[in-house]
Amino acid sequence: MAWDFETDPEYQEKLDWADAFVRDEVEPLDLVWEHEQFVPLDGLRRKAIDPLKQRVREQGLWATHLGPELGGQGYGQLKLALLNEILGRSSWAPIVFGCQAPDTGNAEIIAHYGTPEQKKKYLQPLLDGELFSTYSMTEPQGGADVAQFRTQAVKDGDDWVINGWKYFSSNAKTASFLIVMAVTDTEVPVHKGMSMFLVPADTPGINIVRNVGLYGEPMNGGSHALIHYEDVRVPADALLGGEGQAFAVAQTRLGGGRIHHAMRTIGLAQKALDTMCERALSRETAGSRLADKQTVQGYIADSYAQLTQFRLFVLHTAWKIDKYNDYKKLRKDIATAKIVMPTVLHDIAWRAMQVHGALGVTNEMPFFRMIHGAAVMGLADGPTEVHKTTVAKQVLRDYTATDDLWPSEWIPRKQDEARAKYAEYLELEVGNL
User: How deeply is 415 buried, as exposed, middle or buried, from its count of CB atoms within 10 A (0-12, 13-18, 19+)?
Assistant: First the structure.
């Protein structure tokens, strides 16, 4: 029997280094260059950030999700989960550690499905952190429901011509290339009739209609593009993974990414809990510390319990991914993590906000940003409600219906069965009375 909740001492040293490095060197970047993570580095920012990336490389923590052949360490999901918990505290940390979304997922699918030429042109610069990319999938009329997708790529000689609209194509305004999902065959089921294309951002016909912002950002000043692809012509070698392979390609990038997001969320929620506890010990009202108020104690206890349960669940899921090396087998657990993630962050951030009173709702504290981030998580990579349906279907596969009028746990029948099982003892018991 083997149960172990300890981290290897050698890797724990890496985590301790990352924890201090993120706190002392990376989190300050969030304050001096806010919202500039996906802007290509200029002279001044490059002078500050390139040395930080180099220090990460020297520690062997650069792009750790990738195998050694691609410049990473090939860490399994459990190690990645523990590291991502630390990185989740800072918006800049994934950039500095070479594992920012959507570029990590895009790099993974190019590594799996790209031709040697595609890897040379797109993958290596992406791994080096010298450019950014976009995953252009969802559409305005159907969100993430692929059955509603209308963007098409039609063969024209040796080229493909793409026409249609895409929505929430994150970082398109600073991306060097886009991975575009389009219908290539309307005569087959949707899961077999879509393909992926690698499209340079300067290709004629890519029209960014507006850059949609999240709440609080200026109109047309966000980073989630509404794009009109208008006669966008790409050569045959722009196809990624082969015609009709879009779904196989897409699933490669989603499973591990959701676990990474979950652990980064845990790091952010832990930050909210830490801030709440500090405030509770530091502030007095109505004759005693906030920490002595039962309501605040309830907030802290509920937050700790919620966060600890979720953390253990995600780590266990990551461990199972490493054990089985099969995302499909763990589909239920990965979807469950996606379901729980927004609620955990929302609830803890909301309680922390309440404990801070009026200060908590201002832009001088991070709680509303966390709460808004939780709302985004409930929609990104598929709405929570869709994942609940997935989990329910997967859970039900382990059960069978009963043909009996009464449930299998109906007590009267079980009592009769129990009495029959131990009849001889019951008879002796009665006889001895």
Answer: exposed
Read out DSSP for 165-193?
EEEEEETGGG-SEEEEEEE--TTS-GGGS
CB 27 within 8 A of CB 35: no
Name the token pair of 359.
Answer: 């200060």
Query: Which 3 state secondary structure label does DSSP give 422?
Result: coil
Contact partners, residue 250, CB within 8 Å, separation at least 6: 109, 137, 181, 196
Please state, as a whole number, how many other Cβ atoms lie within 10 Å of the Cβ of residue 207: 13
Per-residue pLDDT of the chain (433 residues; tens, 9 = 90+): 778 889 999 999 999 999 999 999 999 999 999 888 888 888 889 999 999 999 999 999 998 887 777 767 788 889 999 999 999 999 999 999 998 888 888 888 898 899 999 988 998 888 777 889 999 999 999 887 888 999 999 999 999 999 999 999 999 999 999 999 999 999 999 889 999 999 999 999 999 999 998 888 888 888 999 999 999 999 999 999 999 999 888 877 666 678 888 999 999 999 999 999 999 999 999 999 999 999 999 999 999 999 999 999 999 999 999 999 888 889 999 999 999 999 999 999 999 999 999 999 999 999 999 999 999 999 888 889 999 999 999 999 999 999 999 999 999 999 999 999 999 888 776 666 5
Same domain, 255 and 154: no
The whole domain housing 186 covers: 133-240
First-to-last alpha carbon distance for the chain, in angstroms, is 47
How many domains are contained in the chain?
A: 3
What is the C-alpha separation between 180 and 260, in angstroms, rounded?
23
Q: How far apart are the C-alpha atoms of 269 and 273, rounded to whole Å?
A: 6
Which helix (H) or strand (E) is 112 found in, with range? Answer: helix 103-113
* DSSP for residue 119: I
Cα separation, 413 vs 232, in Å, equals 69
What is d(CA 88, CA 236) in angstroms, rounded to the nearest whole number? 39
Indicate whether 379 and 255 sit together in one domain.
Answer: yes
- The pTM of this model reads 0.90
Q: Is 95 a domain residue? A: yes
Q: Are residues 99 and 138 in the same domain?
A: no
Q: Phi then psi for 164, rounded to 5 degrees?
A: 150, -175
